[in-house]
Amino acid sequence: MPAAYSPAAWSTFFSAEVGASAALAGFVFVAVSINLSKIVPQKLLVARAAKAIVALTGVLLAATFCLIPGQHPWVLGAELTMLGGILWVAATGSYRAAAKENPFITMRQRVLQSILTQCSAIPFPAAGISLLFGWGGGLYWVAAGTVFAFLAALADGWVLLIEILR
User: Which domain holds residue 59?
Assistant: First the structure.
């Protein structure tokens, strides 16, 4: 079985991503707790925090599913497809709530956030569908989604920790 479709070949990668996503989720929670009194009254910031947590939780769950030993690739494909669909809906909804009528971000920032949001969610169902059909990149989609999810969450965490004070 090619490495793209063999979760066992990716075990080191997924183990690292479980730890990294949990650590970054902790960073977001710390950022929110430090600035809680400024974040809670502003729905735009609450949505931005939710978007970061959704992205990181998606990576955490996808990597955890991929670490289940002996799981057939089509079972993992079904799990990633369902998880990816839920992630896409949650991430897109959080993005819209954070960006809609937001006077603090420019059109360029809005477009960048939209691209990061979609690139952090869409690869997970793509990986699942690829595993189900046995073609199209397999688990490499999870790697791409992980990178974009980390970038999106770090950008959101930066806003929640630093930019909010400006």
Answer: 3-165
pLDDT in tens, 13-62: 999 999 999 999 999 999 999 999 999 999 999 999 999 999 999 999 99
pLDDT tens profile 120-153 = 999 999 999 999 999 999 999 999 999 999 999 9
What is the 3-state secondary structure of the chain?
CCHHHCHHHHHHHHHHHHHHHHHHHHHHHHHHHHCHHHHCCCHHHHHHHHHHHHHHHHHHHHHHHHCCCCCCHHHHHHHHHHHHHHHHHHHHHHHHHHHCCCCCCCHHHHHHHHHHHHHHHCHHHHHHHHHHHCCCCCCHHHHHHHHHHHHHHHHHHHHHHCHHHC
Q: What is the pTM of this model?
A: 0.91
